[in-house]
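Incident log, structure service

09:12 report received: a user says their structure output differs between two submissions of the same chain.
09:20 pulled the input from the user's history:
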Amino acid sequence: MKDISDTNKYESISHHIEALLHASEAPLTDNALKKHLSLSTEELNQALELLRLRLDSGVLRLYKTASGYRLQIADSYSALIQRVFPQRQERLSQALLETLSIIAYKQPVTRSDIEYVRGVTLSSNILRQLFDKGWIKEDGYKETLGRPALLHTTAQFLDAFGLTNLDELPSIPNTEIAKAFS
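09:34 re-ran on a clean worker, output below:
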């Protein structure tokens, strides 16, 4: 059984983590939190668990994304937030979503791989939008004629869709589309 001084210590650390997450414009990694607060992995994990439990009774939640930890308003308040602070929701086109899906599931891919799966020519505008959002990057070249760039998703893509890694992508139903991804 943990001693009361340990509980107080971890509670204090959890408050420090919460303060840093509130002040940070970007998610904070395990390593950043350990460095800034001079913590061991065990201390960090204990404090994060206490923070998570404490936040569960409020409106904020502790989320871990590919880029680190962040605080976010609980999903149950999204309707209220959108009603009070209406923002024009960005619409992602079908072509953009298809292209992004192909990159996410088949990476690394080339432009011609995407065109083959989709069955149509890929608009440069779609790739530009994905690069501008920081959701994809070029990383290497395929050893073939013309040495086309290999496209990969980024940590920003994972963050935007609330994922910590690609293994959390939903499985593709067993259809003709699934065959194109294999």
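09:41 both user submissions now match this output. Likely a transient worker issue. Closing.
09:42 reviewer note: Residues 172 and 179 are 10 Å apart (CA to CA). The radius of gyration is 21 Å.
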